[in-house]
Amino acid sequence: MEYFGGWNICDFSQFTIFSIIFLFNQFGIEDTFVVMPEMRIILVILSLIKLLFFLRVFDKYGFLVQIISSCCIDLIPFIMFYMIALFMFSIIFVVLNMEIDVENNMLRHVGFF
User: Fold this and answer.
1) Which of 58, 41, 53 lies closest to 10 in space, CA to CA?
2) Tens of pLDDT along 72-87?
3) What is the pTM of this model?
4) Residues 4 and 44 in one domain
C-alpha cells in the first residue's frame, strides 16, 4: 500500500482513467456515457501533475513546482467552502422556483445549473 502514496497515486489514477476511456471508445459506448468529458478533464489535470513531477528534477523548476503544489494544497479549504456555498445557493434557487426570465427565453435549452 505504500506504493500508492504520493506521486504514484497520480500514475495509477491516470492509467485507470485512460483505460476506461479507451475501453469505452473501443466498444462504441463513449457517446452514451454521461461523465466522459469530466473524465477527460481529470485525465488532462493528471497529465499536468505528472509533468510537474518530471520538472522537479531541474533546479530552476523544482522550487516552482513546490510553490505550485503548496498553493494547490492551501486552496483546498477555499474550494470546499466555495463548492458548499454554490451548492447551497443552487438549492435555494430550486426551492424558490426561480425560473429563467422571459427576456432570456432564447436560452431554453440551457439548464439551470
Assistant:
1) 53
2) 899 999 999 999 999 9
3) 0.63
4) yes
